[in-house]
Amino acid sequence: MSDRLTFPLSKDIVKKFHLFFILKAKxxxxxxxxxxxxxxxxxxxxxxxxxxxxxxxxxEQGASGEKFNTLVAELFRAAHSLKGASxxxxxxxxxxxxxxxxxxxxxxxxxxxxxxxxxxxxxxQAVDLIKECMSxxxxxxxxxxxxxxSIVEKLEAATVISDNSQNNAAxxxxxxxxxxxxxxxxNNQEHRKEQSINIKKQLP
Length: 204
What we know:
This protein is mainly α and 204 residues long. It is built from seven helices and no strands. One of its GO terms (molecular function) is protein kinase activity.
């Protein structure tokens, strides 16, 4: 007779263990899938961010007529794609910023608001924060609410159209856009130069 003691498992316990391992396996699969989705989204986000930065730089340097329309359309599509893709992977911070940026670009596209150095600064800030949100998400952290709320409020404020701006946009063609550097925007101009260098490095 064996000295080893055995404890027969009841059918209920066996079922519970079986269910536990099935759920654990499913949980691991979901986590793996989630990570793969995030990695795929990160690649797409990088492409859209590059498109946005490159397009905004070209727009700021000067554009009119068909060139203007093409650039703004590309920017609008990039923001729209980011909005949809971020919603799919449930990154609501990026979704919110991209949505508000899309609203601004839509108004620019339809010549409802005028471009200015301040508006360019705001749009570049929005794109930078989208990148930061992605990095924060990959680190498993939450993006600071105050920074998110601040950029969203500023983008929303940019979409407020006065009666005068609507009349001006309706009564004349959008002029060629050229933003001259000023002493008060030296830091922003330096940031643009750095962005331009980084973008050129990423281009094929």
